[in-house]
Design brief:
Structural class of chain B: alpha/beta
Strand order of the largest sheet of chain B: 2-1-3-12-5-4
Strand content of chain B: 5-15%
Oligomer: heterodimer
Radius of gyration of chain A: 26 Å
Number of helices of chain A: 13
Helix content of chain B: 40-55%
Order of helices and strands of chain A: HHHHHHHHHHHHH
Distance between the termini of chain B: 68 Å
Helix content of chain A: 55-70%
Distance between the termini of chain A: 53 Å
Number of strands of chain A: 0
Radius of gyration of chain B: 24 Å
Chain lengths: 324, 473
Amino acid sequence: MEYIEKMNAASRTSKKKKKLKNLYIGLLFVSPVLLGYAIFILGPLIISIILSFTDFSIGAKSTKFVGLLNYKDMFTGKDFFFFPAVKATAYYVLISVPLTIVFSFLVAVLLNQRIKFRGFFRGVFYLPVIIPIASASIIWMWILQPDFGVANYLLRLVGLPTSTWLASDTTVLPTLILFSLWLSGSTIVIFLAGLQTIPSHLYEALEVDGGNGWHKLIYVMIPLSSPIIFFNTVIGFINSIQTFVQPFIMSSGNSGSGGAMMGGPDNASLLYVLYVFQNAFRFSKMGAASASAMLLLIVTLLITAMFFKLSGYWVHSEGDDSRK
Amino acid sequence: MKKGSKHVSWLISLMLVLSLVLSACSNNGNENTSDPAQTTNDAAKDAEKKEPVKLKFTYWGSPDEKKAIEGATKKFTEKYPWITVEPIQIPNSDYNTKLTAMAAGNDIPDTGYMTSDLGDTWAKEGKFVNLFEMLANDPELKKENYLDYIWYKQTPDNAWGISTAGEAFGLFYRKDLMENAGVATPPTKAENAWTWDQFVEVAKKLTIDKKGNTAMDPDFDPKNIKQYGVTFETWAGPINNFVFSNGGDWLSKDGKDFTLNSPESVEAIQKLADLINVHHVAPSPLAAKSLPAMNVALQSGIAAMAIGGQWMNLDLGNAKVNYDLAVLPVLKKSLTVAISGATVLFKDSKHPEEAWMLFKWMSDPAGAIDLYSSGLWMPTLKSWYTDPALIAKWVDANPAAHPPGFKDAMMNQVLNNGVPDSSYYLKNQAKIVSVTLSSLDAVWLGKKTAQDALNEVAAQIQPDIQGRYDVAE
């Protein structure tokens, strides 16, 4: 007996040792990621927080702490571009996120049906994601050129009213939102994957009870997809609040000598990250840019937190009875 | 949701948000590759027994400009075999970003182009060599050899930069399209310049809708235009031609007040906007953004005339477009705005002497004649405008890029009636120009009058007015 106990104790300590060794090896293996995170994300984040309280500008001889001045300048409108940027970003995010979710979900539902050329259509909707966004932006700029572009030509051909697209302050954001719909292939794919996991017996049960296609959508597809809708909404929100490339290429000036405007016309497409970029690299105001970036971080955190808080009311999780 | 998974999801959302903000802050500047062709002759290097020196030269420009620059630096290396030059081409729109990033990484070039807005900021921080000092110590060159206006000064005796080239604006036009419309070609001499009304009338005759009506016809359909009479860009340079011609300016003479909302300035800007919204003879500049560059617009006949910079000669000449040059229409006084990016020597360069040699090489047409004869640049040295033998070397050598009107409408116009652009004297210009130009968008769109928009700007921008460099404080 004693012998067996000893053996057990020995194996316990060796198990403990092994566990510890495993931990070290494990840490070693994940260290590239942890180090990368610390050096490239955590470090700059902390530096950025500090810089947001300074008047730092690259190449400047001296940098001094200015307290909350950078933040004050934003909210008092002394930074001329802050309110236009907030306005444009709010407009863009509030419309593009829900629209993309609804659009992608409906497309995913259609692509989940037994239709002809299903593979082809699935490819078509995903194709824009493969095209580099910068090239796609330039091609769309040409297509949307109000006078000579293909888009207006086609509209005219079928007798529809044309648009000024990117060339006017009232149409530039709707145009960018349409562009974001065109780019929603990844969201569609995620929805599609979710829809395919819905077991067919649910549909069959519904059919037995005399439900039609509409009922399938309302009572099966949407509730069972709610975790994925939630996921796509959060990701979509984070992506859309940081939209940069499209307005940078499609609606920013490029005459470097003497103030190239960003997010035109009339600042209508000056999305927030573009505004941060403009402060940092056009006006060399790194301190102010850091402060704006911090504000973006805080706002994004708060809104994401809100999403999670509210998710309990509508997100359906399989096998989760603690749902409120 | 269960409590545990809530924590995890919180963590995930926090990470997502963190990485979002950081990726927003980070800058993915394009790495520009150097040209491997810039190798030196090793044998010659040994013969010279000089320490090999490598210079980094940054610039922006079109593919043709790249070719011309690389040709000039190659010849420079042939003459001074111990100096290699690495020319780095950076797109103009990314130039400030890239240079800022290079400065942050202590990887600043030795010499190169500089935008006037970033130059203005960096000059204050003492990042550039005072060119007047270099000139004072130079046995060959004197300040008086250069055109008068070309210095970017901080104070009367400190120049942080020199205009890379002589550049100015003119009225480019397609000869054949003028003939088709049966209008007289515009004058090349300042004293005969078109009045604004004459200009508008011709522009109307040259604007044609899809049914073939011109803007003069009552049936003209401004929504379906096939060929515009004129096209122009709306950054500060082109606008200044008309603001200055009408007696306006960005700032008051003492540099204390914003005066782009003065009656003279406003009238000029409103007249430009009316070309778009009242006369329908010019595309909205905001729509023009997605048009091809102005030289292509001329070449393809989208526009019959273009208010453009001298540098357009390069591309038009290469494309063998049937065009000519005239002086700009006049409001009160015939003039052309002289403008150019700056060339600077960076103070952090380890080889200031060699950088100065390279600068002298590029600014002397004798050594880099292709830059001038190709139509890209005009010289900065006065003698090249006045000595017929020298003029022959760059103007007459390439008639494709120097059409018949060039000498009067461009070369002599800048020499006799050239007025320095606001970029030479406006302090804090990055901010002032950005705020002003973005507010003018509403004017180009026809939603506000120039007066209203500029009055609003004047109220907002006054705290950012810091004066002018050409006025002693």
